[in-house]
Amino acid sequence: ILAMPLYGQDIKVLYDEAELPQFTLPDPLIAKDGTKITTAEAWEKVRRPELLELFETEVYGKAPAPLPISSRLLEEREVFGGKGTLRRVQLFLTGKEDGPQAELLLYLPKSDKPVPVVAALNFKGNHTLSDDPAIPLANAWVRNNAEDGVKNHKASEESRGAAKSRWPIERILDRGYGLATVYYGDIDPDFDDDFQNGIHGAFQKEGEAKPAADEWGSIAGWAFGLSRIADFLQQQDAIDHDRLIVMGHSRLGKTSLWAGATDPRFALVISNNSGCGGAALSRRRFGESVRRINTSFPHWFCDNFLKYNDNEDACPVDQHELIALIAPRPVLICSAEDDRWADPHGEFLSGLYADPVYRLLGTDGLAVDEMPPLDKLIDSRIGYRIRPGKHDVTPSDWEAYLDFADKQLGGK
Ligand code: GTR
C-alpha cells in the first residue's frame, strides 16, 4: 500500500494563468431551481442546505450520525513553568472503550475565565509537537519518513519534537488561547485500504464492503473527528464554548474547512495552504488538479468526486461555495507564495467569490478585491493572508491566526 503514490505524475500541471481554462463558476446565490437568493432566511432555509448536500454527496461524502463520545483523563500537569496546564485525554470516538479512540492533548493557559481554544489535527503524532518526553509515541500507523527515523509505519523516539516548529505552544498560551490537538492517524490512517480501519471501519454497515459513492472519504472522516473533539471541548468548563477555532494545514486545511462547513460550533475557521479540494477553486486547474488529487489520494474524497476528473465544470459546486457554507462565521484563508501547487490565487478567489454570501448575511465579507501584498493580514470577516516561503506552518502564521481571532472573536 502506497501512502504517497508517485503515479499521476504524467498528468500535465498548469502553472501559468494564461494557460488556464475558461470557466464560469456556479453562483452561490442561485438555487437549484433557478431562484435568486436575496434574503438571509432564504440562504439559511433553501440554499445553504442545498449546497451542504451537494458537497456531501459529490465531494467529501456523507458522514454517519455521531454517537455520544466518552473520555478518560490520563494525566494533568503544569507546563511552561506554570503558565499553563496540559491535560492528556483518551477520547472514545463512539463512546466505547473498545472502539476507535484518539489521544487528545489539551494545553490551556492559566486563566480565571474560560479561554478560546484552537482545535487542530496534527500530521506526525502528538509526540512530535514538542520535546516533552512524557508524551507517548503515536500508536497508530504513521507515514514513513527517513528524516524522522520512521520505518515500517511505527513512530520512534527519533521523531520526538520533529514538528515543533509548526506548533509554538507556549506562545499560543501566552496569547491567551488553548490548543487541543489529536494525531490525525488516530482517527483515520492516511492510506487507501478501502476504509477497513479507523473511524470508517467502526461505522461500516452490515454487508457493505466499503462506503458507497456518496459516503465519507478520509477528509470527511478527519472532519468527523474534529467534531468529536468539539463534543469534548464543549464539556469543559475551562473553555469558552463560543470561541472554538478550527485550524488545519494542507490536507488538514481541507479538513478544517469541511469541519467548519458542517459544524457550526466552530466559531472561526482557519485553513493553511489547503489547495485543491480546500480553498482553491477546482475549475482553475492551477497546480494540483482534481484528476491529480484523486489519482494520488483516492481515499480522501467520496467516489462521486472521481466524476470530475478533467471535468470540473460538471461539478455542481466549486470551492468558493465551501467558504460560503461557513458564513457568517469568520474564516481565514492562508497561502504561501512558493506553494504554487496549492494555487494561492485560487485560494484567494474562493474568498472573493464567497463575499456576496457574507454580505447578504450582514457582514463585511472580504475587504479587498485583489490579492494583498505579502505578509499583510486582511482581517475582514473573510480573512486572507499570503506570506513568503513554502508549504508549511510557521510561527508568523500563528501570529496571524491569533491576530485574526483577537479581531473577530475578541471581547465576546
Ligand atoms: C500533497 C497534496 C496536497 C496537500 C499536501 C499535504 O501531496 O497533493 O493536496 O494536501 O499533500 O497535505 O501535505
Tell me what the structure shows.
- Helix 2 links the parallel strand 4 and strand 5.
- The protein has 412 residues and is an alpha/beta fold.
- A 9-stranded mixed β-sheet has the order 1-2-3-5-4-6-7-8-9, with helices on both faces.
- The longest helix is centred in the N-terminal third of the chain and has 21 residues.
- Helix 1 packs across helix 8.
- The radius of gyration is 20 Å and the shape is globular.
- It is built from 10 helices and 9 strands.
- It binds beta-D-galactopyranuronic acid (GTR).
Structural features:
binds beta-D-galactopyranuronic acid, nine-stranded mixed sheet, 412 residues
Short description:
The chain is of the alpha/beta class. The chain has helices spanning 40-60, 169-174, 184-187, 198-203, 218-233, 251-262, 290-296, 320-326, 344-360, 395-409; strands at 70-79, 84-92, 101-109, 115-122, 178-183, 239-249, 266-272, 331-336, 382-387.
Multimeric status of the protein: single chain
User: What is bound: which ligands?
Assistant: beta-D-galactopyranuronic acid
Order of helices and strands: HEEEEHEHHHEHEHHEHEH
Question: Count of DSSP E strands?
Answer: 9
Structural class: alpha/beta
Distance between the termini: 48 Å
Helical amount: 25-40%
Judging from the principal axes of the Cα atoms, what is the shape? Answer: globular
Largest beta-sheet characterization: 9 strands, mixed
Strand content range: 15-25%
Summed up, the helix count is 10
Q: Give the overall average pLDDT.
A: 96
Strands side by side in the biggest sheet: 1-2-3-5-4-6-7-8-9
Poorly predicted residue ranges: 1-6
* Rg over alpha carbons: 20 Å
